[in-house]
Design brief:
single chain, 365 residues, alpha/beta, 6-stranded mixed beta sheet, 15 helices
């Protein structure tokens, strides 16, 4: 399962700086709008402290972590929904991502211009949300027009029209599609509209080096946290400039640098893990002498669905799953010892895979 996150925000808020740190690539980060015209993409490994421990147990030829794809999308300005700036490109690029990483500038710097003239994270966040909502309203209007025609001939279309009209009335009030309480039967219809304001958002409060040293968040950051809570989204705080420096250091230098800023780990690790949680994703492992690998699944996935992430044949011909808990493997030190202790479980089609499960699938095609 591929996780693709789009990094968005107003021009000059630190999007490309954070993207550079994530991917250690060299996207231009100059001080002017639209320096990132084409979407830049990078695939980043999900940091997972369990993989080195599994490596010591299985001694595989290689380790393959789960991954996240990040897209650095051109800066957005007011009027994007009407094609202002690079609005049309922005909206088409954002439709392709699973989650939105919304970078919001929460620091003052007279040397870096702000497209709106001053620092106001709530205004900046709402500006982009408004543009996404306006684009969704246009989508809904087109859908209403299409379904009105079809409803004269088909009962099914009338039912869909009623749902779309209810959702449009909700969005007309300035509310995001993600806050619309849909019934289960309505969900698939709404999902098919690919609305931008249904995508989950992780707000990234980009602060300066002085702010990251403080244990208490400033008022700008607090406002973002409150906004995320109200919307059932998530928010984190990091310093893009520091993260870019950390990304360029050798491993032995990183710990010293992070200690200087009282960081337990790079802020980007938190960004990646929070993106996973935002989408309700988990990982399970497969292990052997050839490879130890982390696989990404939706929380609540069944054993056959998890098997399908490896290959569709595994899901189609699923017989059973041999499951070992990561903690048991760590405690006993090998698969054989876990099995000798009677702790390996054979599970059927209804088994719900849990984060950290080590699984061997039995299948027949």
């Amino acid at each position: 399962m591929a996780l693709r996150c789009g990094i968005v925000g107003l021009p000059n808020v630190g999007k490309s700086t954070i993207f550079n740190a994530l991917t250690k690539s060299s996207v231009p980060a100059e001080n002017y709008p639209f320096c990132t015209i084409e979407p830049h993409m990078g695939i980043v490994s999900l940091p997972d402290s369990r993989l080195p421990k599994l490596k010591s147990i299985f001694n595989p030829e290689k380790i393959t972590p789960a991954s996240v794809e990040f897209t650095d999308i051109a800066g957005l300005v007011k009027g994007a929904s009407k094609g202002e700036g690079l609005g049309n490109q922005f909206l088409s690029q954002i439709r392709q991502v699973s989650a939105i990483i919304h970078v919001v500038r929460c620091f003052e710097d007279e040397n870096i211009t702000h497209v709106e003239g001053n620092i106001d994270p709530l205004r900046d966040a709402e500006l982009i949300e408004t543009e996404l909502l306006l684009a969704d309203l246009e989508t809904l209007e087109k859908s209403v027009y299409r379904l009105n025609k079809l409803a004269k001939k088909e009962k099914k279309a009338q039912k869909e029209l009623n749902i779309v009209l209810k959702l449009k009335a909700h969005c007309d009030e300035g509310k995001m599609a993600r806050t619309f309480n849909a019934e289960e039967e309505e969900f698939e219809i709404i999902k098919s509209l690919f609305l931008l304001t249904r995508k989950p958002i992780l707000y990234v409060a980009n602060v300066d080096e002085n702010e990251i040293l403080k244990s208490n968040t400033n008022l700008h950051v607090k406002a973002l946290y409150d906004l995320a809570k109200r919307e059932n989204n998530k928010a984190i705080r990091l310093c893009g400039k520091i993260e870019q420096e950390i990304a360029t250091l050798d491993e032995d230098e990183k710990d010293m640098f992070m200690e200087e800023y009282n960081l337990n780990e790079p802020g980007l690790n938190k960004l990646i893990h929070t993106s996973f949680k935002l989408l309700g994703l988990e990982t399970y492992f497969t292990g052997g002498p050839t490879e130890v690998r982390a696989w990404t699944i939706k929380k609540g996935a069944t054993a056959p669905e998890a098997a399908g992430e490896i290959h569709t044949d595994f899901q189609r011909g699923f017989i059973k799953a041999e499951v070992i808990k990561y903690e048991d493997l760590l405690t006993h030190g090998s698969e054989k010892k876990v099995k000798d202790a009677g702790l390996a479980q054979l599970e059927g089609k209804d088994y719900i895979v849990r984060d950290g499960d080590c699984i061997f699938f039995h299948f027949n095609v």
